[in-house]
Known about the structure:
1 helix, 12% helix
Amino acid sequence: MVGKAIRATNAPRTKRGAPADEDPSDRSHMKKIWRGVKELNEGFGRKGNHLIPIKVISASNQIVAGRLYRFEVLVGESESPRDSVNAAKLKKSNCKLKEGGSRSLYKIKLYERLWLKYEKFTINKIRDVDANESI
């Protein structure tokens, strides 16, 4: 007997290989973003304070020859000076947000190929965010 395949859910179908939106509050995203922000800080030289992630605004992933994550992230100035704290050692527990510090919105892309232990970040600033602007 030949029958039709039955879908188990009523969730809308997405095209194979198309980007899929994810929950921005998923904690696994912030772990990836911290790695990306470390790279961002290494590109700034030794002046000023390190930037740290505050909030994930949007998140998506796409299966390619690996996985491509796209994030929009609110990033803020920390209390940690670049000339005394190594960017590679930054983490939430040792780097606090500076009260009244600058904030910006960044687009962070992460291309991962876990079986090759490969990851590449592409980071672009979208815009500055005013201190009293709610995001």
